Amino acid sequence: AVAGSTVELGCSAQGDPAPRVQWHKEHGDLPWGRHEVDREHTLRLYTVTPADAGTYVCTAQSQLGTATAAALLHV
Questions:
Q1: What whole-number percentage of the chain has pLDDT above 70?
Q2: Which residues form the Ig-like domain (predicted)?
Q3: Cβ atoms within 10 A of the Cβ of 4, count?
Q4: What average pLDDT does range 61-73 have in this prediction?
Q5: Residue 26's closest CA among 67, 74, 63, 72?
Q6: What's the confidence (pLDDT) of residue 49?
Q7: How far apart are CA 54 and CA 68, in angstroms?
Q8: What is the DSSP string of 43-63?
Q9: Alpha carbon of 70 to those of 4, 16, 17: distances in Å?
Q10: Core-most of 13, 38, 52, 69, by most CB within 10 Å?
Q11: Which residues make beta-bridge pairs with 18?
Q12: What is the pLDDT of residue 14?
């Protein structure tokens, strides 16, 4: 990603009952005040900086189990 741009990372999880979906960054926190997660579980990072580079992990959890997916962001 180019520094200063907005990045979108998608995470699709379905089930019955619907799983609880959460995002986190390995080795750090999501950028404070510069991120949001929409109803479709897409993580948006605004005005990215080199400090935002790293691995972002989406975790979907329900009573049936847990699934994770990761995305590596380069800035």
A1: 100
A2: 1-74
A3: 10
A4: 94
A5: 72
A6: 96
A7: 16
A8: EEE-S--GGG-EEEEEEEEET
A9: 22, 23, 23
A10: 52
A11: none
A12: 86
What span, in angstroms and rounded, lies between the C-alpha atoms of 23 and 69? 10
Residue identified by tokens 């009573």 is 63
Q: Which tens digits make up the pLDDT trace of 13-27?
A: 888 888 999 999 998
Structural contact between residues 26 and 57, judged by C-beta atoms closer than 8 angstroms: yes
Task: State whether CATH 1.10.10.10 applies to domain 7-73.
Answer: no
* Element containing residue 23 per DSSP (H, E): strand 20-25
* Contact yes or no for 54/27 (Cβ under 8 A): yes
State both tokens at 62. Answer: 């329900």
| Distance, CA of 30 to CA of 23 (rounded, Å) | 8
Helix, strand, coil fractions of the chain, as percent rounded to 5: 5, 45, 50
Read off the pLDDT of residues 20-51 as tens digits, 9 standing for 90 and up: 999 999 988 999 999 999 999 999 999 999 99
Q: How many CA atoms lie within 13 A of 29 on its CB side?
A: 4
